[in-house]
Amino acid sequence: MKHTRRLYITLVALTAFLVFAFFYTGHTDAKKQNAIPKVGILQLMSHPALDQINKGINDTLKKHGYINGKNIKIEFQNAQNDQSNLRTISKQFVQDNVDVAVGIATPSVQSLKNATSKTPIVMGAVTDPEGAGIISNNKKPGGNITGVSDQAPLKAQLNLMKQVIPNLKTIGIIYTSSDASATSQMKKMKKLASQQGIKVEISSINSVNDIQQVASSLIEKSQTIYVPTDNTVASGMKLLTSIAAKQNKAVFPAATTMVKDGGLATVGLSQYELGEKTGEHVVRILQGKEKTATTPVTFMQKGHLILNEKMAKKLNIQFSNSLIKEAQKKGQIIK
Amino acid sequence: MNLIVSTISQGFIWSIMAIGLFITFRILDFPDMTVEGSFPLGAVTAVSLIQQGHSTLLALFMAFVFGCLAGFATAFLYAKLNVPILLAGILTMTAMYSINLRILGKANMSLTKSNNIFNEFGLDKLPTNFNGIILGVIVITIIIFLLIIFLNTEKGQAVIATGDNETMAASLGINTTVMKFIGLMVSNGIVALTGGLIAQQNGFADVNMGIGVIVIGLSAIIIGEVIYPDVPLSIRLITIVIGSIVYRLILMIVLQLGFNTNDLKLISAIILALCLALPTIREQFLKTMRNGVKTK
């Protein structure tokens, strides 16, 4: 019975603490001014693309004269793809009274949104802010959230496919069913393509382990493969492109990082640049030049043309001169 | 201060899930992997229903019912078709992924409306985090109360007997198959209910939110047992709540100390392993102490 008594003591102590906290917190709700501005960055998980965004944010802050530890405090937290971490860290940012909170990837922003309706939140790459229910209007957010969308320039990507593959009639799209932004991109691309009379074959995967089988059958049915901004497929990009190459078919990814892993070409956004744009939002909010409620979400209109010549040679595809010129001028050619 | 209160509030809510897990893990005496599927199942059920305009209470009730169905599936595989329990749970969990996607329609959905159970009934007027604590305490009290009543009925005793010694229970005329069905269904119902609660607290449901849930639940149960060993069954349910709060506090301290969050999974696994090993270490220590006294 000794332990039962110990439990009762714990329960009494816990209740006493909570009662104390209940009355105590009522008095400390008034926020204290920070000595130097604080920025909280919440990243969903470790991933090269997301890390690039974070780097872009940090570099932009530095460029505008904000030096971490000197005249700004940047608190970086990685939630390691865990729901309860997301919540704990979001709450912690609010407790720490950060001046601006940045969420990298959709779930981070959703979690921050849920933790506060006062602290300004900047979205670092949310593909579909309206669709994900984060804000009600992209042009006029109206609340405490604004930021940057990483919606890929789909129209430009479709045009690129039509330019490179003559007589394009069927595109195969492979995406991860649990990835909300990949799913929304897949739907948009499907709509765009069918408007132009191109048939779309769609296959979804659950994990990298499905790529081999799903891709093999998808490639049989389509002239080329398109991959949305999809973290899971991105991890298996080498496998996907090698399966496609065996059938002499090209893979067009939505993100530039995936071209380096064997994709043929894309008009893509640089993750680093997304981070820079996110950082600029943060800077303007810190300087008091920007209000979240009235600042439209930044959509990146122009992408960079990236061509993979090594892959083109392997597939016996010749890029037109105008494409090569454009890539040399504003984009990148991987040899 | 607020951070500690927030952590305690998390501990309360997650302990409900651990109580559900306790039924299979300790009373029926097997680990049930189904929870990693039934937890998001409850979340997606609740969020879809609320988005369609149904009441939050109905949403939670349906989350419980769907969780029971997931438990039924595992019980059917295990008790009727003789699939090993670990495998049966993993099969249901895997299947749940597709079902959850179907229910939600997409991988992740926010609750755009502000009506969730934490703000209903005037709970939003409380200081920050206290709505979670009050609601958590209410739900925990109801569930523990009902469980204790149930475990003291003839059926409840039969479930306990099945877990203690199946052969013996069968020889006493207990239908052990039925008992396994009851245990798995109630357990997963409670886990799914927690999923529905947490989705409302977090403001969204995600089909991946079940990952790692079983470790959180087991940690709560085992930390509770390590702090308060040898207590009667009904008291053990309360120790789980304390265990869950302590687990959250440990994680909070780890975060506060500035540990790299990349290592958080490793740290939580080490905490669980330490707690699992603690009884053995304690025994070894006492044994050497006693031997030491003898040789003198």
Automatic annotation (TrEMBL), chain A:
Keywords: Membrane, Transmembrane, Transmembrane helix
InterPro entries on file: ABC_SBP_TrpX-like, ABC_transpt-TYRBP-like, Peripla_BP_I
Protein name: Peptide ABC transporter substrate-binding protein
Source species of the chain: Companilactobacillus alimentarius DSM 20249
Segments crossing the lipid bilayer: 7-24
Pfam family, one: ABC_sub_bind
Source organism superkingdom: Bacteria
UniProtKB/TrEMBL annotation, chain B:
UniProt membrane topology term: Multi-pass membrane protein
Native source species: Companilactobacillus alimentarius DSM 20249
GO molecular function: transmembrane transporter activity
Regions crossing the membrane: 12-28, 57-78, 85-104, 130-151, 181-201, 207-228, 235-258, 264-281
Main location (coarse class): membrane
Keyword line: Cell membrane, Membrane, Transmembrane, Transmembrane helix
Protein name: Branched-chain amino acid ABC transporter permease
One GO CC term, this protein: plasma membrane
Origin superkingdom: Bacteria
InterPro entries: ABC_transp_permease (IPR001851)
Cellular localization per UniProt: Cell membrane
